[in-house]
Amino acid sequence: MRTESFEFLRAIQETPSVSGFEQPVARLIRKRMKPYADKITTDVHGNTIVVLNPKGTPRVMLAGHYYQIGLMVNHITDEGFLHFSAVGGIDAVILPGIRVTVHNKKGPVEGVIGRKPVHLLKPEERSQAKIEIADLWIDIGARKKNEANKMVSVADPITFKLGLDRLGKDYITSPGLDDKVGAFVVMEALRLASKKKLKCALYAVATVQEELGLRGARTSCFGIDPQVGIAVDVTHASDYPGADKRITGDLALGKGVVIEQGANINPYVGQLLLNAAKKNKIPYQLSAAPNATGTDANVIQITRSGVAAGLVSIPNRYMHTPVEMCSLNDLDNCAKLIAETVDRIDGKMNFVPQ
Hints:
Oligomer: single chain
Strand content: 25-35%
CATH class of the largest domain: Alpha Beta
Number of strands: 17
């Protein structure tokens, strides 16, 4: 991966963007994409829209959501501890003992998630596999409530301790790879496409609130009114101990972009992606999507009178944990695949299934 691209990826991974609080990453995207775009806007919902060749036809929308799952302060105890709620899907089992950051308007506040030590648990408590978020708390080192109130506020967003690390030659690990890597890829795809003579109008959108109901993709797609839409998300890798490939398929980190095929995918868009991968010798993996996917492609497909939708995915290990893992080569190849695909799209194409 190019050094500048990697540093952009690192910057967005190490910048907080809990759902509803994506503005810090939006600022990074607007600044980085300015040299490559004809127009950049952020809509009232918080979606950041980067436009290339706006007078082209047809309109093609790329979508990758750039918020991350997190937590939110909902109560401060008299002793200065914080109780919290989940923002997005979080398995409470992973929470005890991890480091977190509360993002207050005055600045970040570090904390740890506490639980009764295992030595003090009753036998029936030890045997319980399930952990309730309500039984956990965040310790920010405050000695009482009024001291905590000077540091944080109710409704402050909370992230896992942010940071991107490299593992081996090709892998990265970080909170929030789901789906900041998707936002990274669509912006990289537009950067690559800016070197081409596109016939289509290209809209690369960093969408908000996917985990809370695909909300950002729904509103931005309605506003753009594209004829073609390609979403980029992560998908479950199955190359770790205990993975059941009968459920997830045989998907591995570093073995290529995952091209989804199924009911949520327009057959011509799906074939365009496959053809571009084969012609340009871009490694890819196939995945079955027999139903409506839980991604931005879902609402893109059914916006207004319908959009020709596609979905490409990045294999991800340990999804929705502080140590999500992806391959840098997969990210590079995904951006290349999308850039080559949109370069093939012109106004003469008919995406109506025959």
